[in-house]
Amino acid sequence: DVDRRLFALLQEDGRMPANRVALRAGISEASARRRISRLLVNQLVRLRCEVAQSVSGTPVTAVLRLRAAPDRLDATARQLAVLRETRMCCALAGPDNLLLMLWLPTLGDLPRFEAGLAERLPGLDVADRAVCLRTLRQMGRLLDGSGRAVGRTDEGWPLGAADAAAANSPR
Questions:
Q1: Cα 145 off chain centre by
Q2: Ramachandran bin of 29, using left for φ above 0, alpha for ψ from -120 to 50, beta for the remaining angles
Q3: Which 8-state DSSP code applies to residue 121?
């Protein structure tokens, strides 16, 4: 299907010129432009730029499992989602009903962040926390030790030997 080919090409390089997309997809440039525009307008495709965490000024990834009152879950999630440190916030089933992923400047910022949460959202409890030591894959990209993209993953998981080697190779 043409749209799937366009999606794959944009995933490979969201800045790929329309003439190159058209050539690789086997369609005319006008058709490529029209189809990409339709995919974007209908929000079937969203373009996103992912920054290497190592150059973001926030090299520490922390994941918090939180407990919010069920009747406050949506409002709490919305408050957490807009915080500068938040990379992802999602609702979970079970007593730990929120997952919050953060990017922080230092490990020492985690207790300060949690103290701020306790002040802003008194009914929210931190059930568990973890610090990520290294991210190997993000948004379909294999990452090197400094968090820069060095390759693409295939659809399958776990990573194959070639993918793991690419992720571990120095850049």
A1: 17
A2: alpha
A3: -
| Structure letter (DSSP) for residue 160 | P
User: In the beta sheet, which residues pair with residue 86?
Assistant: 102
Alpha helices in 63-160 (DSSP H): 73-81, 109-120
80: which 2 tokens?
């957490």
- % of the chain at pLDDT higher than 90: 62
Dihedral sign, Cα of residue 34, residue 39, residue 43, residue 49: negative
Beta bridge partners of 138: 141
Looking at residue 156, the DSSP 8-state letter turns out to be: S
For residue 2, report the phi and psi dihedrals to the nearest 5 degrees: -65, -45
CB neighbour list of residue 127: distance below 8 Å, 6 or more residues apart: 65, 66, 67, 95, 96
Residue 168 pLDDT greater than 80, yes or no: no
Which DSSP symbol is given to 122? T
Strand partners, 91: 98
pTM of the model: 0.71
State pLDDT tens for residues 79-91. 999 999 999 999 9
Rounded CA-CA distance 3/19 in Å is 16
Q: Which two tokens stand for residue 161?
A: 């030997």
